[in-house]
Design goal:
5 helices, 146 residues, globular, 14% strand, four-stranded antiparallel beta sheet, alpha+beta, two-stranded antiparallel sheet
């Protein structure tokens, strides 16, 4: 059973996001970004309570801006998804997740060493240029069960 319900349009959208955010970090980096996207769709916590679809996650607005930089800036997000990224997106949607993004709800590229916390969320690890953060204990336990 898939981790989150999805349509082919969601696969395409997620594949474009994974490519735009982490193409330079290879397949593994794109899979980690995919982990965060799926985790947000299943997380039942304040920042993500109203998100249940891939489209809602990708186009979420927080603080007046899109949550993902690739949507804000456009860059390669608006290019077509390639079949290789679609395969990775399906893999995430179905079951794949791994450390450091296994339970992560956030990531960013600090262009410096990863801070140990980000908005009070603990660092789970780094892959190439991206730092990954999961919810602080007791703040969003649903991400661990989805």
């Amino acid at each position: 059973m898939a981790r989150v319900a999805y349509r082919e349009a969601d696969v395409d959208l997620m594949a474009r996001m994974m490519r735009a955010e982490a193409e330079g970090e290879g397949k593994q980096g794109m899979l980690y970004v995919g982990n965060v996207i799926v985790n947000r769709a299943i997380a039942d916590c304040p920042d993500f309570n109203d998100l249940r679809t891939i489209e809602q996650v990708i186009f979420q607005v927080q603080g007046g801006n899109y949550s993902f930089e690739a949507v804000q800036k456009g860059n390669v997000f608006y290019q077509r998804a390639r079949e290789s990224e679609k395969r990775l997106a399906r893999k995430n949607l179905e079951s794949w997740r791994d450390h450091p993004a296994q339970y992560a709800l956030w990531y960013f590229n600090p262009y410096a060493p990863c801070p140990p916390t980000w908005y009070d969320q603990p660092l789970t690890g780094q892959f190439k240029q991206h730092c990954f953060y999961e919810p602080a204990p007791g703040t969003c336990d649903s991400v661990y069960y989805g």
